[in-house]
């Protein structure tokens, strides 16, 4: 089954929409799906033109396509556990929160907290992702625990903060403090970043661009070869963050 | 003119000497009056238990550390969500709910007045802003003086009058209500990575002891004729064997006031531990209760813990660090320049933990072994021991021996070896509970004069009507009904208006903030004192002129002015 949700023009397009209900499992039975526009509860068809094609007997056969002005629609795919969501343009904050399985494809940019505390499944963002991509929420001890996040463009600050499992790949640059508080999983940064991996206790971070302002609390333990983008790169290997007896691995390309 | 008549109420009003009479209560323009006209609106209480509005004399609901507890625990914010309904805003949070969450849940339980247990003077604005957003309770702020440099200097100089002048200036500047000492001297020592372990340890740099701070502040408080006494969180909280420090503190207290206690000791459960390590921690509630029974000049609150998840927060920075070293979970530590500090960590009290079982028993024992209910208030040090929504369960435990036995059966079987609780038969009655949840608090806080905690003509018409019929209900066996009844009033009336009904808040609130101003002779006016002014010029990051909380932060401030005897 394919559900196409095209946004209707809104009088106040800047008011965010809270759309945690937009997940494949909810579209199996045609119950009344509602979202919040600001503090007003709205039926789905007040916000979208809805077209449904074909049948489905299980959520993994459901594909949701979001198109139009979707940049302020928040929490799409929250707790998603099967199926597929395709976003034709940009998507608002908290897309794929806590998702455990299935796939989200974003053709534009993603706002902050993409894949926050994700447990499984795949998120692929073809544009840029904002701050806290694949991170844990403020005060949360564990961030993303499993699954795959791929960002083809750049990501903001605090990418993969508290990463505990799974794999995060940012093909472009990251901002400040990627992989900070990492305790497991893999973070791959194709471009440049600043101050990676502070307070890291576990996991692997690989940086194939430049790492500015490296923290002094990582111990150089030699070098290693790694493959990225079809090429082999010579990397300096660090262990840390030794400030908190961390056993993480940080690899930075030798330029 | 608005008039309301509550008919057929089964009233217990301890301050007025009413111990369970069926009567009518007349209300005009927010106050209790002798009688009202025929056109008054009528509520039929149908012989239900009717008490003055609940008063919580020690709870943490507003201010910077509560807020830090909120944002360090997203899991807590997810735990207690309620949707918008009628006039009620969305709320979230369980142990550290949003301000409206606190306000609604208290109101539904019949509480109309709350004392915030600890406000850092420098951060008072935030507390007052959150008071305004806690609209269904009148609010008061305990103001922290435990590590105040000017106070410790006055203590060192043995200058009680100067200490009093510092208190007078500060309370009036920050619109605080009373003096709070949290681990006196300890949090300042923590600035040097140390703590004080008894009341005779010296605070680094200042060379004063907690005992000297406590004695000076007790006398300063009485010089200012403040409504409440000094309110203390003793040294060595949560340390096995700390009951000795508590007994030492109790021994310091003179009897200086004939209207109320001279020292209020908060959350005494956390201060009544025997043993020397976590392995042999035991209850010393009997020793502590004996001392309290012998000293009418002290009042205490329980600081009961209840099993489950909660958040601990206190100005006692070093204690929170010790807790962090036990749990290695999230921890926040905070310094407030020249004044105090704080720490916050989330905790889980478990029936499988012997230590937690002993703590649970101690709180109940303190309430059951203190003979005079006016000396022991019901509290959980919300949210440190448990969120306040557990009060009804605590009331039921105090009223029913059978309930306690059933609960004890679920605990670590070794518990009975370390605590006297299984041997205590006492079951509190409705009157005791009325004292321990409102009348005792109002008296201890010294706010009966502004119409709190009683229902005599002239009092504020703050009334809680519970769906409980004391004539036909046996709390000893029907404790489930007791719990349910105290959890949800039929009516909560605040200043003559029904604010909550059957578990739902029905109007927007408009609370007051009660603060104190001690009027001192001009020679004690610290705003022109060179030494005091220098503190601001040299050390504070805030100018003296910017320090006081402006009136705009207290849209409905009620000032209790006193004449200092300096
Ligand atoms: Zn407290």
Structural features, described:
The complex is a heterodimer of chains A (255) and B (566). Chain A has one helix at 44-47; strands spanning 2-7, 17-18, 34-37, 40-43, 48-53, 63-67, 73-74, 84-87, 103-106, 122-125, 148-151, 167-170, 183-189, 193-194, 202-207, 211-212, 219-228, 231-240, 248-253. Chain A is an all-beta fold. Chain A has 2 domains: 1-108, no CATH class; 122-255. Chain A has a 13-stranded mixed beta sheet. Chain A has a 4-stranded mixed beta sheet with strand order 4-3-2-7. The longest helix of chain A is centred in the first third of the chain and has 4 residues, at 44-47. Chain A starts with a strand and ends with a strand. With 566 residues, chain B is α/β, with parallel strands linked by helices. Chain B has one domain (52-449): Metal-dependent hydrolases (TIM Barrel, Alpha-Beta Barrel). In chain B, the strands form 5 sheets. In chain B, strands 1, 2, 3, 4, 5, 19, 20, 21 and 22 form a 9-stranded mixed beta sheet that branches. Chain B has an 8-stranded parallel beta sheet with strand order 6-7-8-9-10-11-14-18. Chain B is globular. The model of chain B has no long low-confidence stretch (mean pLDDT 96). At the A-B interface, loops of A face loops of B. Bound molecules: zinc ion. The site of zinc ion has 9 residues of chain B, from β7.
When the domains of chain A are counted, the total is 2
Helix percentage of chain B: 25-40%
CATH architecture field of chain B = Alpha-Beta Barrel
Structural class based on helices, strands and sheet pairing of chain A:
mainly beta
Mean pLDDT of chain B: 96
Which stretches of chain B are low in confidence, meaning pLDDT under 50 for 5 or more residues running? none
CATH classification class of chain B: Alpha Beta
